[in-house]
């Protein structure tokens, strides 16, 4: 019986030794081969997610750029340049004169302001002071705002006078013109 017990004990020690060697070998394989590969995969996944986010942002930027280009292509014929700065100002003053000449208003002053150059367009500005019946001033505002070329009123000051329904008005009217492509 003692031989059998010794044999079982010896087999048990062999099994435990095999298990211990297997655990040590498995741990060694895991730390040397598997763990670095898992870390590498984890860093590659994180980089891939960053690149996917960057790609999505770039796609969004391209969609916005395409939308802006589409809108600009629709607007460009309206703001196309008609020559030099002097020619542009002359055309702009003529357009404004055509709008207020039909009305019964007295123009007091017309002041051409310096041209402001932006990245791809120029902004022309004219300050007009006029007086007349309030309905005529409102008609002028309406005609500017509904004019077929894109001009707009940026500032408007109205002062009442002693005469009923007569007012003095001051306008800053602007027009945007594309830079001439030369």
Q: Can you tell me about this structure?
A:
- A hairpin with a 3-residue loop joins strand 1 and strand 2 (121-133).
- The protein has helices at residues 2-79, 85-101, 134-145; strands at residues 105-117, 121-133, 151-160, 166-178.
- It has 182 residues and is of the alpha+beta class.
- It is built from three helices and four strands.
- It has two domains: 1-79; 85-178, Ribosomal protein S6/Translation elongation factor EF1B (Alpha-Beta Plaits).
- It has a four-stranded antiparallel β-sheet.
- The termini are far apart.
Low-confidence stretches: none
The total count of strands amounts to 4
Strand portion: 25-35%
Give the helix level as a range of percent. 55-70%
CATH uppermost class of the largest domain: Alpha Beta
| SSE string, helices as H and strands as E | HHEEHEE
In the sheet with the most strands, the strands line up as 1-2-4-3
Structural class based on helices, strands and sheet pairing = alpha+beta
User: What's the shape?
Assistant: rod-shaped
Residue-averaged pLDDT: 86
Question: What's this entry about, in short?
Answer:
The chain has 182 residues and is of the alpha+beta class. The protein has 3 helices and 4 strands; from the N terminus they run H-H-E-E-H-E-E. The termini are far apart.
């Amino acid at each position: 019986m003692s031989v059998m017990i010794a044999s079982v004990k010896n087999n048990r020690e062999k099994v435990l030794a095999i298990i211990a060697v297997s655990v040590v070998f498995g741990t060694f394989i895991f730390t040397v081969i598997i763990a670095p590969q898992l870390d590498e995969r984890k860093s590659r996944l994180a980089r891939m997610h960053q690149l996917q986010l960057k790609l999505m942002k770039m796609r969004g930027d391209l969609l916005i750029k395409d939308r802006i280009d589409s809108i600009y292509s629709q607007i460009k014929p309206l703001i196309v340049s008609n020559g030099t700065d002097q020619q542009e100002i002359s055309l702009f003053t003529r357009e404004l004169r055509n709008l207020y000449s039909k009305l019964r208003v007295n123009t007091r002053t017309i002041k051409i302001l310096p041209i402001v150059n932006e990245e791809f367009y120029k902004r022309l500005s004219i300050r007009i002071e006029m007086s007349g019946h309030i309905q005529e001033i409102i008609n002028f505002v309406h005609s500017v705002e509904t004019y077929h070329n894109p001009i707009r009123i940026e500032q408007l000051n109205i002062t009442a006078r002693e005469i009923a329904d007569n007012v003095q008005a001051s306008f800053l009217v602007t027009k945007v013109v594309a830079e001439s492509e030369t």
